[in-house]
Amino acid sequence: MRFLKTTFNLKTSIILFLSVLSIFAGCRKDIVLNSQKANSFASIIEIKESYEKLAIDSRTRDSLKDGLIIRYIPQWENAKYSQINDSTQYTIVPLIGSGQLNEKEIPVQTVNNTAFLVVANGQKFYLSRFYPDKKSDDNFLKNGKLSMIDVFNKNLFTYSYKNGKSTYNAPKAFKSPKGSTKKAAYEIRCREEGTCVWSTYCRGVGYISTSYPGTCSYPTDYTDCDYSVSWSQDRILYNTVCENVWVPDPPTDGGTTNPETPPTPKQLLLQQTKNTDCDGVIRANELTRNQDFRNRVNEIKNKSEEWGAAIKLRDPNDPNSVYIDPASSDNKVSNKSVSPSWDATRGYVIGYIHNHPGEGSPSPSDIFNAAVDILEMVNSQNIPENQLEIYLRNFSSSVVSGGNVYTITIANAQLFAMMTGNFSTAQESANKQYKNAAEKFMNQNYSNGTTTEEFQASGESALIKLYGKMFNLSKQKIGETDSNKAVKRDQNGHISKVNPCTP
């Protein structure tokens, strides 16, 4: 499918300008940064001793793919100080990235946020990042978002800034601990928040883009290279978000309690839904036993343009009520428009099937364009919990290519949902990244030309490298049934096909 090209403004250096920091934890507490160190503050010498004793350097490093290691170097001479309350003082220390690639030091730039340490009373360390709404040197801690991660327990706290005033972003959609018996007391409720780390390397400089917590969008940040730079999703960081929730005594003779708002059943379902490789293979085999599905495969397998059809449910409450629309085409070799929906008027679209005339493997757009915006489904009052679960368990995107049928299913519903709502704005960049990664793998491993299988393996390796935590991928020959195998990638990028349902 066609991707839209986007260009960005060049910004290659970040100057820390610290003026006002307001942190909210429950109620708002104003923090004033002073230009002179208060007598009660821990000295930089004391903080450095704690920094070294507690091995903060190693706890804040990013070990990325391809051997790139990022260290964040404190700029002690530029530290600022702020009094929080009678018992708490903050020292705020700017951080500058330094990279090591294949035992060689390289310069590193953080392109979408400003990184710094917040040190409470000289001993408690928070790795902090400010994401400005607009990239200007005087916007720091004025308009944007802030994340603070406790270096030791990985607890995450986020804040929003407007005109220098901050508000604490209280977490939502919490899951109570199993077996909790507390009552008339505070109970700690926690969940994991995923944050994607992206990197690229060009002209001797490493670039790091750390997404705002809870998001995983492809970077839209410009570098010293042109717009064709390829970003690699290196890993997803998981931090714990917690809050104290008051648990009241239950009534003994009628009346009601008023606990804090719990997560909705659909929010919990999204967080908890995980589908294994075996689940993906079972779903793929179910599809290939469907006569409508086999008919569409045979209809579109030899087309010279992309043809496709929506896979729908007659009854949104019955996952077995599958039927498939007639195949259609936009008369384009590498583009077929997709409009997934989940309503009675447009249909309950549980997936999509289309062909690749060029015999390539699935691309990023084949994963996410075929899916409904799952977060909209979670928030919609018109979609009940059982229908959401049917969708998360049975969604599929199938690609007919080079004598094979691929089937994509959801692996991690929470991560998959993050992309379905944001992918349209990142398609062009994601397509370039996927293409570059596939070509790199092909050139490194198949220098004497490629067969169709090797050509597809290069794309499979690139796709799993970029988004493998979010989806399951299976594959079988056209005409076969119940023979799907999971497509897996090892640490060197090589592809194998296995039966994940065999003990």
UniProtKB/TrEMBL annotation:
Region annotation Disordered: residue ranges?
481-503
Here the segments flagged for biased composition (Basic and acidic residues) are 481-492
This protein is called: Uncharacterized protein
UniProt source species: Sphingobacterium detergens
